[in-house]
Amino acid sequence: MDAIPAYNSPSVGTLGIITTPDQSHHWGIPVINSDLAAYFILVLSAFQWTLIFISHCVLQRRYVRRRPFVDRPPDEYPGVTIIRPIKGIDLNMRHTLQSSFCQEYPGPIEILFAVEDPNDPGIDVANEVISRFPKASTRVLVGKDNVGINPKVNNMLKAFDQAQNDLLWICDSNIYTDPGTLRRSVDLLLDNKRLGVIHHVVFSEAPTTFAAMLDNAFLVTNHCRMYLAINAFGIASCLMGKSNLYYKSALDNVGGLASFGQYLAEDNMIGQALWRSGWSHTMTGDLARQPADINSLAEYCSRRIRWVRTRKYNVTFATFYEPLTESILLGVLTSWALQHLFDYRMLTTFTTFMLCWFSLDMIFFYRINGGSPQSWPWFVLSWICREAMALPLWFVAIIGDTVVWRGQRFRFHINGTVDVLK
């Protein structure tokens, strides 16, 4: 009689992967241990909730209890050159540009407006604002230096070259800052000689369209929350270029502004270069306020896709991890894990998860905004729609490599550089 072949029982390998000889031989596909996967998901979920908790702590410590001015002699404050790149007309542009002239700063301030096109209508707005402050040291610089494909770098380079001060404050034309922002920022630099970059979190305000409300729901909750939490760890560079202070000499030591003209996300690359050279980053309790100027759903989607595609080649790991920072996907995974391991009802768990997430987002918005949303029903609707759209927009963004910015189309390379498409 022929011998009965022995049954090849499954064996658990490393990392909880179960394989059988037959499966490995015929299919070559490992089977993931579902218990291990569930525990791993719970660890990720706990990590994300920890980041949310940290962001609320940072919000309370830095933004609700804003740091007072340091009492030091005025002559200890260095001169600062504020550079405002201009292209076209922004919403409430007079108000945003004027905020540079209203800074309560004891030291000398130079304000440079950088414009590429001599026929740009933004020149008239800048000159109108300048006329209100005849004693201010300010100039409008017109011209373009073709050092790369990044139009913002090409526009700003002349201002960098002509700046009279080593300490620069790069502030986009659509950004409004409170009068004490510059002084609090310089106080931090003077107190810590290893600080090389001061940046401010972006805050969208006064949305008037539903698309602008969607953008507001993103910037003032998910984006702001993650931005504060990541920077609280201080283990890597994480900044946006809306409002940044750094030393021109430090930037020159890492190649100068012109060397970053090959990147579309020059702000991120500058931050990484300064970080690698030993200059740490921090934030004050001030906001870079920008008017909510998105008019259509297509414009909102285009902006979100552009952000993801830009980050995909500069901060790859963070970009691919991003879906796990969104409530719906993480809520579904967490609910499944709790059902699988502890027999919790998945629908009940998911509902509780989403209600807790929304409540903390609402509290975050209320505290950083200093008050309630203009319209609770509209905020709730925009929050729900923003959360529902996040993952589909991420998928669309991750499979493409072109973006449209300021009327030009760009294609990304894997090293983060871009080409202009005709």
TrEMBL record:
Bilayer topology annotation: Multi-pass membrane protein
Pfam families for this protein: Glyco_transf_21
Predominant location category: membrane
Annotated metabolic or biological route of this protein: Sphingolipid metabolism; Lipid metabolism; sphingolipid metabolism
Enzyme Commission no: 2.4.1.80
Subcellular localization: Membrane
Major enzyme class: transferase
Stated name of the protein: Ceramide glucosyltransferase
